[in-house]
Amino acid sequence: MGQCGTGGHCRLKRRFFRRKNVFFLQDHPRPHNYLCTTRIGRDSIKIDASIIDYIASREKDFDTSWSLPGMPFKSPGYHSKVPDGAYAHPTRDALMYAYLLLASGVPSYRTRAVKVVRAVLALQDTDPTSKTYGIWPWLAEEPLTKMSPPDWNWADFIGAALLMIYHDHRTRLPKALVSGMRASITHAAYSIFRRNIRSDYTNIAIMGAGVTLAAGEMFDLPDMFAYGKKRLRDLISHTEHHGGFNEYNSPTYTIVAVEELNRIRHLVKDASIRALVRTLHLHAWTMIAEHWHPATMQWSGPHSRAYADTLSPETLDLLARSGAISFTPSRTIPPRVVPCYPLPAVLKERFASLPKKEFSIRRRFIRHDDDSRSVYGTTWFSPEATIGSSNHDFCWTQRRTLIGYWKNGDGVAVLRLRFLHNGRDFSTGHIVSTQHDNRILSIAGVFRNNGDFHPSLDKPANNIFRASDLRLRFELTADGAEAGAVGSVFSLSAGMHKARIHTSAGKFHGAGVSWTANGMNAIDCILYSGTEKEFLFTAEEEYYIPLGVELTPSDAPATDVPVSAECADGICRAAWDGLAAEASIRPY
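Above: the chain sequence. Below: its structure as tokens.
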């Protein structure tokens, strides 16, 4: 019998038994995280039962023909040609799985982990003369030569995952495999060194620094270690120059940055490196704290890169484990591989409550010598609601150039402005905004030479887009959402708050635009809808759609000032209730 508990406070008797060299724990109610210790023969094995549970939940996924776990592929729409939903074998997921197999302490799982790691190592390009030297494919069934294009970040991601296995579990692996891992990590480190990514690619700049630092320290590669240290120093200088990470206020990549900084603290012993990590750790957590909205448990906008409009359970779990919030994770969340270090204590109170009842912050994210080109974000907070916008940005699917949240019963309402091409987010769309508290004046237009769904990877031939539908959309995701209109003022409401959209005449590709409610959760500005035709965005046509949005309690009166706009000398100048904005009417 084994004893289980959390922190020594909860003890449960559980039956521990073995079948065919696989260890099982009989199911009983228990806390989310607990450890079991049992003695088998002469060996005492500590088993984290959350890891055992996770591995058991994925038993059906392990494919013996590949020696890898498989799953339905979630395609982002670029890099890979494998269709979304197709069953595949992701390399990054495989190494997390292998780490947990080893962390389980179960001998048969260790045997499986060896097979998984060997299978992943075999997929790396180890030819120093190759363009893709040191990287891996996303999927085992899609080699680098078939990707569109290969993702050079996989030297960083897979290198970091291999380092965790090497650092924590190499004494439990065959010597030949450990030697192979060391060679593979070294190839990845030199690939990172050769690529030499810029500091404005924040999460990869940190991750690559971590791989080269850890490889340099563990494998006695002083030049590699010096490179990683310089990279961290450069990133600190870059961040302090701009006022924050260039991948600004990103719920996806700031969390990756925090995790990678935690990884460096775990892997690298050098005191000077750990001091640099603490500086970057404070930058990352300051960004999170400044934009945290306690009532909705959401990360206020604007966001440079986000994979979803609301925070994932995995992100909330990391915030909780770091001491920022209280959150009980689902049992379906995979156990964490990288240890969570606490957030800076000076920031903890900001997660508990707003510093004022109602206030706004304005932060510079990206600095340019011509400050009109700098990127700023403005965010308004009240006890129940928050809304934020960037002063200018394009409309990639990962951007949240204008997004708001408010408390809606036991849930949260999400308001988002999108630019859509045939129903998908359109990277060529462009938004300029001026915000004061809960009111935002925007002008929508288009970029020149941007891509379609991705800003650079899918530019059409001759810059000609084919479209049957182009529109702006204010989208409200909320239980009980309702759309309405009074004259030219449309509204989206849920619970105790309402977003009012003040519309005006605009032009797109030489024609007028029209506004309409689309069901109960969207207000659309239709730029074109009809038979598919070609669009070449040139300086010969005009593109400008002025609009205003205000987020208020549902019973608050709307401003009765209409949005106005004047266009001259290629510039649209809009005004609304004390706000002013201007943007080019030509493609940027």
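Residues 1-45 have pLDDT under 50 and may be disordered.
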